[in-house]
Amino acid sequence: MFVPRRLLLGFAALFVAASGLTRPAAAADAPEAVKMVVDLLMRDDADFRAIGLDRVRHGVKGEAATREFAALVSKLPPARQAELVSALAERGDAAAVPAITALLLASQDPATRAAAVRALGTLGGGMEAAIIKKSLAAADPEKSAARRALATLRGADVGKQLVEAAKFGEPALRPTFIELLAERRDRAAVPEMVVVAEGTDAGASLAALRAIGRLGGPAEVESLVKILLKSPAGEQRAEAERTVVAICTANAGSEQAAEKFLALFKAAGDADRETLLPALGRVGGPGALAIVDGLIADADPAKRKFGLVALSRWPDATVSSRLLDLLAKSQDPAERDLLLGALIRIAPLPDNKLNDGQKLQLLQKAMTLSQKVEDRARVLERANAIRTVETFRFVLPYLDDPQLAEPACRSIVELAHHQKLRDANKSEFVAALDKVIRTTKNTELVERANRYKEGKTWERKKG
Length: 463
Description:
Distance between the termini: 58 Å
Number of helices: 28
């Protein structure tokens, strides 16, 4: 009698389940249930193996069963080794770790090695960190698997091992170990990262600065200021400045960090202040503003310029009235360009200093002050950060300006990307998107406009 394959597999699955899963927990690792799963795993038929793998993941319980399943990996061909190792990882029993470690040491198959590394990252601990670290020097997919595994590996001493590798390991891999510490949010490693940042290995120093920028706080400000001051103009100084700004504006304890930085700035000599001033402007705050105002009012043109540059980097719109006042009084073209650029940048910032209406008013003022086409284009491109129908109506007329139509098209489409705004003003947006389609030379904008007209979504391309 012919039995359909699907029905046969269904009977097999039910039989295996009845042999193990439906029994009491104490009997779940009964030898006959384990033997049946082992038999399924050893078959060449992929469908039967799939049933066995499912029982490895979720079915037959107990450490003894785990050890028997894990013992099979050395007896299987590489492709099937990888699938069993992955199932053991999902099973979540550390009893499989010795067999998986032995497989990683013995196998030359890239997919199998990657699966073993991923499994050790799930099941292992501090003892497995050393072997996983070695896989960072391999090619993909093993290298990528090792990175993911080390980012999630549990164990009290994993962080310590990564710190040692970051400080004394292979130079080419030191930045990777530092990045992993940041991904693990290992704040205990921050003091050691400061030591690395102060060192002479440029790659490791830059990676350490980025890690401190994610994890650091007030305690690191003084060391970072020293690094910033001793760094020559270039990549490392720029990274040190970004790190100081992040700690003083975004991280836990940012207000205390900003106060510390301001005190260090005030205590610094003139030459050091000049180096620190750009960071001071990006940190902002009342204390910093008092210093910057003093520089702008100084009779020395060089000091005034330093003050204006710092003001142009301000992190929020609290200085908008100062920018407008200075723009009204300035007769110097370069100075006006600097101030206007700052005004265009800060007007729509999502800093909660202004509401949407105030942001749009400030951007409209910037438009009236803009005489160059490139400045007016920047105003239109910045406008789409203010997601209101009033912004849409402000941008819309510029579709008729040949010099500004393209940036206006970009902003209209970007505003249309937000479904609630688009749907609440559907007829206006459809008409505007039709106009964009007729106007723009950008094929992606045309595609997006058509999708939004039809009520569809659009995913931004990565990279």
